[in-house]
Amino acid sequence: MVWLRLTLALPLADPGWASISRGVLVCDECCSVHRSLGRHISIVKHLRHSAWPPTLLQMVHTLASNGANSIWEHSLLDPAQVQSGRRKANPQDKVHPIKSEFIRAKYQMLAFVHKLPCRDDDGVTAKDLSKQLHSSVRTGNLETCLRLLSLGAQANFFHPEKGTTPLHVAAKAGQTLQAELLVVYGADPGSPDVNGRTPIDYARQAGHHELAERLVECQYELTDRLAFYLCGRKPGEQSLGWP
After folding, report:
1. Which end of the chain is more exposed for a tag (fewer CB within 10 A), N or C?
2. Where does the UniProt annotation place the signal sequence (predicted)?
3. Distance (Å, rounded) from C-alpha 170 to C-alpha 172?
């Protein structure tokens, strides 16, 4: 797998960074706030000084250029919200407290995300969203899937009727960018279907060999992160006192 380190022509004034999990580009100033949210909220990576898997970089830029930001600012697009005094932070505002409070409301509290009508059983709502995600990942519409994920769809959802997860579907369809998005949101490349086959197997059997290699890479990255968090070991380090 070739990793890229690029200088890019970017649409924003010196965004510098990307929030991989939110699909948006951010400036140096706002990046510090994103980092304070934690990786479970916003995974940030430098656009020019970091090495990127090409398809992950493509996924972020596809989302950013197709309006992913509007997912997180949905209610602010309503003129009534502006009239009520609710507005997004602007470049002239101070980082603390104005920008930092806005960023936390936007990405951590999800204060401006489109809310679904209330139902008595929240579990059914999450299941319905996850089933929609399961179906949507066979297409190239990343924004739809990000919107579903923002509303509570589960990236690792096991479809009881289909016997697969969304990542199995994306892998079979050769939807590499969808696969990248799902993995960012917690999908497991090694998760078995009802017959024990993984998304990696699906990609290989469908002839999507580059996608299969990328999923193997993602699985190793996941294993390395688990080893670090659970054992305090970095990749390649030998454990002490264990065979």
Report:
1. C
2. 1-18
3. 6
